[in-house]
Amino acid sequence: MGVGSALKRARDSVFSRDRTREELKIGIAGFYDRSSKLWEDVWGEHMHHGYYIPEDRTDHQQAQVDLIDEVLKWSGADEGKKPERVVDVGCGIGGSSRHIARKYGCTAKGITLSPYQANRGNELAAEQGLAEKTSFQVADALDMPFEDNSFDLVWSLESGEHMPDKKQFVNEVMRVVEPGGRVIIVTWVHRDLAPEETSLTKKELKLLSKINRSYYLPPWCSTDDYIKLLEDAGAENIKREDWSYIIAPFWKAVIKSSLNLRSVLGLLRSGFSTQRGAYAMLLMLRGFHNGTIKFGLITATKKEE
Question: Is the peptide bond before 218 cis (omega within 30 degrees of 0)?
Fold first, then answer.
């Protein structure tokens, strides 16, 4: 990287400039290529929040598995006919996909922008005897390489916040799910606006902009925004819930887990973007604490033809 590029990057970071769609795509891939091994070394194969009921639980990796199961139960996916063909949109290193495949005996395909994550997901699938059931590939969630009506469950756990075009994201998940199939989106959102509001406060927007620079995120939206997009895309049986209180202890646990020699050394080796992401954990904690950031659950089904 030249001096000019480094200076531009530093200036953009200081002023929290929004990235272009192409910059986000490249940045997300690079961020997770560099940080995923460190995360797996410290936290295991699940790269998402945990289910903290009771709130003082300390079995953090099991809390992450429990979050998957509790979301599936909440959505209604456990009722009636079990899913047979699942796509995991923003799959990380495939923890959710493999768990869901084991749980239901279904097949699961995972997509990610990170070549490292896709390769590691396939390695773990082979190690766990799930290579015939699960597979992982590099693909863009806004232009998925699947035919219409390919899956009976579309699963997106903490990837929607990375999508620069939320309307296209929703349209794509609705395109690839079959009629009668279910969509589950669990994502970071900002609080819903009050009827008299037209935007978040300047203070709230500044906080989110700082987080965006660290985690390669586009501007945020609310759960209300997602509901409107799903309605416009023809979804039905839409249900929503805020689980911010359930995942609240997670960021404190992550911060605490980073305060040991192994984690510090791994962080030092992982590069600037991962180090900046570690700092942003404090910003996420602040956002959840003051109510700017919410942990939104949304599920819906596609109308039968």
Answer: no
